Amino acid sequence: MKILPKLLSAVVMTISLSAFSQKNDSFEKIYYSNPEIPSTEVAEVSTKNIVAQKELCKMALNIKNLTDDFLLFVPQESKFIYPEGDKRPSSKEYFIEPNKSKTKTLEVNGGNEFLQESFSVELGYLFQIPTDGKPEKTPDYKLPAEKNSFTVGNFKVKLLKYSASTKEAKATFEVVYTGNDMAIISPANLSVSATRKKSDETVVYSNDNKKAKPVLLRNGNSTKVVAVFHIPGKIVDMQFATMNLIWNNTFVETKPVMLPKVKFDVMMNKELTEEKK
């Protein structure tokens, strides 16, 4: 995966403001026009419902992921830039799934300088998280378990619970990432193998957990991995069978790529502000 050179110049937009932003206390609220923010090969960024009151300013920020990778946005590193100084939102970081979009509110408060005719915004860090990282080759895991925990590469894995009946087998693990980059945990990749009744044939069934979605982890973070299997009793009686859990690249370590900062200016929409006065 490569970040195209075009991205480096296209993602940053700065529109010159007049010499200084002017405070306007003649309105209880000021409504702003949505700026045009150039899209890139990686993401489309847009805003809506930008509004300020004396004590706060907020906007809805939409980030559309145009790639097959994940994006990570760190909103608390954003800056709303005013003549009196910068303000930062307190929102937590979040991920945008491949080819999906997510809208979150950015809000700054504290002080009484927010009724401005214009201001600037510098968005926080945006990272591209490649999905084609390094898969961790993980040995098959025997069920019922012979050991409750193991370590492979920068992943610590612990079996929390296992149950098996003729109709269903279910294993729940805790996974901790100890590396310095980022991990993608994909429970849907799991499968299980067993020997067919009255035969030497090996059968393989995929994880049947419909809620299994990829999870991204930083250093020291953990997640639960749940594997659910349904093998017809006439093929394998899971209550009594010995099975092997096959990890199939469930654990992938990847290096985040920091994208250029996105900057834009916000201008008062005088008509809308007068209309809503």
Q: What is the helix content?
A: under 10%
- CATH domain topology of the largest domain: Immunoglobulin-like
The SSE order reads HEEEEEEEEEEEEEEEEEEEEEEEEH
Structural class, by secondary structure, is mainly beta
User: Would you count the extended β strands for me?
Assistant: 24
Strand content bin: 35-45%
Strand line-up in the sheet with most strands: 1-2-3-8
Radius of gyration: 25 Å
Number of helices: 2
Unreliable stretches, pLDDT < 50, 5 or more residues?
A: 1-20
Q: For the residues shown, what is the average pLDDT?
A: 91
User: Largest sheet, if any?
Assistant: 4 strands, antiparallel
Cα(first) to Cα(last) distance is 50 Å
Number of domains: 2
Going by CATH, the homologous superfamily of the largest domain would be Immunoglobulins
Described by its quaternary structure, the protein is single chain
Please state the second-level CATH architecture of the largest domain. Sandwich
CATH first level of the largest domain: Mainly Beta
Shape: elongated
How would you describe this structure to a colleague?
With 277 residues, the chain is mainly beta. It folds into two domains: 5-130 and 257-275, Immunoglobulins (Immunoglobulin-like), CATH 2.60.40.10; 134-254, Immunoglobulin-like, CATH 2.60.40. Helix content is 4%, strand content 45%. It has two helices and 24 strands. The protein has helices at 5-10, 270-275, and strands at residues 29-31, 43-53, 56-65, 70-73, 79-82, 85-87, 94-96, 101-109, 118-122, 126-129, 134-135, 141-143, 149-152, 155-164, 169-177, 182-185, 191-195, 202-206, 215-217, 222-229, 243-246, 251-254, 257-258, 263-267. The strands form six sheets. The chain has a four-stranded antiparallel beta sheet with strand order 1-2-3-8. Strands 7-4-10-23 form a four-stranded antiparallel beta sheet, with no helix packed on it. A four-stranded antiparallel beta sheet has the order 6-5-9-24, with no helix packed on it. A hairpin with a 2-residue loop joins β13 and β14 (155-164). The longest helix is centred in the N-terminal third of the chain and has 6 residues, at 5-10. The radius of gyration is 25 Å and the shape is elongated. The model is unreliable at 1-20 (pLDDT under 50).
